[in-house]
Amino acid sequence: MFRFLLLTSFAISLIGCGEKEVTSEKKARDIFISTTQVKLIDFKEQESSMGVIKGLIDPTVAAEISGKVTKIYVRTGATVKKGELLAELESKDYRFQLNLAEAEIRRLTVKLENQNKVLERNKALVEQNFISPNALDNISSEKNEMLEMLEIAKANRDIAKSNLEKTKIYAPINGKIQKQLPSIGDFLKIGDGVYQIINNKKVRAHIPYPEQLANKIKPGMDIQLSSAISQSTITSKIAELKPSINQESRSIDVIADISNLPNWQPGSTVNGTIIFRSKKNIGVPEQSIVQRPVGKVVYVVTNKKVKANIVETGITQNGYVEILSGIQENDTVAVDGAAFLTDDLSVSISNSS
Q1: What is the pTM of this model?
Q2: Structural domains in the chain, sorted by start
Q3: What is the pLDDT of residue 55?
């Protein structure tokens, strides 16, 4: 009897241990995942690229005459207004030329007055038949020649005056001095640069896009621009496309104008985004898409069990993937832990969203 009771007790303990092992094994098979519901999202078919801002109004102020730099009024970094005096060249020789031209005008003016008097006297003599009319013609021709000489002298005076004025160099636009090129004492020839001035009133964004988009991008399309310096985003219009493909990068240069934004500085980087079209469709987090031999799948959770649904994907945007087919709106899908799932697996849900 004692032996029977001992055997019965031992059998019950074995059954209990077996149940504990099954329960433990079942818990070990459960995988903790997070879930979310499939929802409608505004997806945008867009392309982004990084480019650079270039100045549209950034003239190099050059010397219009030759001469030695005698005065510098502004330095690099200074803000200048249109018409402000920037520098001066030596003006002594040009002042002498102007004085000489003005003296020549005075000389010819006196000679012309005398010639007029001679002409009037000879007209009276011709009327009285004291001299031949041919002599009057010669005097008249000399007067006309003197008038032309006077016009030439006046033109030389205007040139000398203009050259003297050009010894003073003025700012052609409002802006900032990007670079001062000469120093006091340097000799400048005609065309030598003096200052580089930048004006941020109107700049241009040059953004390269892959050549495959050449037929999709058109002038007049909206483009969103953002700059790290200004930390702002604006919407502009595509002004033009460069007609040739860049041979090195195999890209097209998309150009957009930026106006009245002084913080958008030439030389800084700019990010451009072109939105080709917008649409509303269902989407899931990127973590929910799992690559399997059959293709891309999303695990739909029902009653704490998962089922793999083969899906067709579209646009990826801001961490979400557009789903074209395979699941429905409001389905509950696995997010974190989806990569470890298999079909018909039991799961434990945590941090459900």
Answers
A1: 0.57
A2: 30-44+280-349 (2.40.420.20), 49-57+200-279 (2.40.30.170), 91-166 (1.10.287)
A3: 83
